[in-house]
Amino acid sequence: MATRHRGRPRSFDRDTALEKALRAFWEHGYEATSIADLTRAMGIAAPSLYAAFGDKRTLFEEVVEAYVNRYGGFIGRALAEEPTARRAVERVLREAAAEYTEPGRPPGCLVINAAVNAGPASAAVVEELRAMREANTRAFASRIRAAVADGELPAGTDAAALARFVASVLQGMSQQARDGVGREELEAVAATAMRAWPAGPQEARRGGEAADR
Q1: Where does this protein bind DNA (predicted)?
Q2: How many other CB atoms are there within 10 angstroms of residue 110's CB atom?
């Protein structure tokens, strides 16, 4: 029976290298991050990178998955855990202010910023990230439609438009964080955005009663 020879064991920790690649893409974006940048950040040679992660595109796909699992899950958790759409969206925006400005990390959101200024060669990556952002917008719209059906929001609420508004605020907060805006200022943006949230039927009735006094 032939003896099976094992390949040389890796001289680096794969998870640590992946996190370093994640930070590089997060900081500089997909197109601007070269293989040389990645090997320097990860502390490995190009052959080791290709052997462990495949090419740059394949590595980036794994990076995005790791980012969502490690840093981007706050959106889904808020939508799943909060009892009302208003509280869910308020939590998303408040936590985004914290997540996008967390010390020791690149600012903003990788899914929002990684494909900014990317050229035609990166069109597939741009589209994949756009699809992820659209999935979040659809999740907001689904929660808002449920709130309308439950009577939490007025019957005439435009769920698609309100969801797009929330997504636009999130994307703006990410870019503001990239520009150096701090957590407190972004929390103020979140609070201002929530003032545009439609009043529910009960709130509207209370407002009308107060006006009649």
Answers
A1: 34-53
A2: 26
